[in-house]
Design brief:
The protein is α+β, with helices and mostly antiparallel strands and about 230 residues long. The protein is about 35% helix and about 25% strand. A six-stranded antiparallel beta sheet has the order 7-5-4-6-8-9, with helices on both faces. A three-stranded mixed beta sheet has the order 1-3-2. The two termini are about 40 Å apart. The chain binds zinc ion.
């Protein structure tokens, strides 16, 4: 399911009552288009005249880009509510997911049978869910190493950056071949799109299966053209 504002408000009230003893006043719920995180609690922090921290502009943001099972969505909402609880009561934690956060989280997980984690990052499975909504064209570099390993890298569709990756990786002594493809296979949406000199190792048979409908690109080191 994809979270609507009224659904999140209803869940907020429900969990506030059930878990937080109804102590948390409602704050604005904002729908975001974030793809790397599902939820976020945000606020502005400033120091008052006496040097004490004050919080303003408290908001709970939930991305509408994911189609998640309800229990996962609920866990995300509770996770953000723990952040809110800590800020609202002006409690001190050593970091955003410090010992206090973890203690509250573990207590809630045990008491209410939840599976909340400290991570804000969407999981690969969630991103796949997200991916299913959007087909995008990617440039994929398939890297074959001399030791037989294979891997892929999703590249930005920007020629100088494709060439930078292609030429640098190809000239590496451990690399046997770099092949470029254009693909709108949603399989590739889960990988970060950048020209960082990295390779995600993947089994050759998986790569071949995912790349079979892709268009092969030819690169001569200074230009990239579609192979006919
Ligand atoms: Zn968090």
């Amino acid at each position: 399911m994809i979270a609507t504002v009224s659904y999140i408000e209803q869940k907020f009230d429900e969990f506030n009552h059930l878990i937080f003893d109804g102590e948390l006043p409602r704050i604005p719920i904002v729908q975001s288009k974030a793809t790397r995180v599902v939820g976020a609690f945000t606020c502005k922090v400033r120091k008052n005249f006496w040097g004490k921290k004050e919080y303003a502009d408290l908001k709970l943001r939930i991305s509408t880009q994911f189609d998640l099972p309800e229990n996962e969505l609920e866990d995300v909402i509770i996770h953000e509510m723990i952040h809110y609880y800590i800020v609202y009561h002006k409690l001190n934690d050593s970091s955003s997911h410090g010992p206090l956060f973890k203690q509250l989280m573990n207590d809630i997980n045990a008491k209410f049978g939840r599976h909340i984690t400290v991570s804000h990052k969407s999981t690969p499975e969630q991103r796949e869910q997200l991916a299913a909504v959007k087909k995008r064209w990617h440039v994929i570099a398939v890297v074959t190493f001399k030791d037989g390993k294979t891997g892929i890298k999703v590249l930005p569709r920007i020629l100088p950056r494709i060439l930078y990756y292609y030429n640098t990786v190809k000239s590496n002594s451990g690399v046997a071949n770099v092949a470029l493809y254009m693909s709108n296979n949603i399989f590739f949406n889960r990988y970060p799109n950048s020209s960082a000199l990295k390779v995600h190792y993947l089994d050759k048979t998986i790569i071949e299966a995912q790349i079979q409908d892709a268009e092969k690109l030819h690169c001569n080191g200074v230009a990239v053209i579609k192979e006919k």
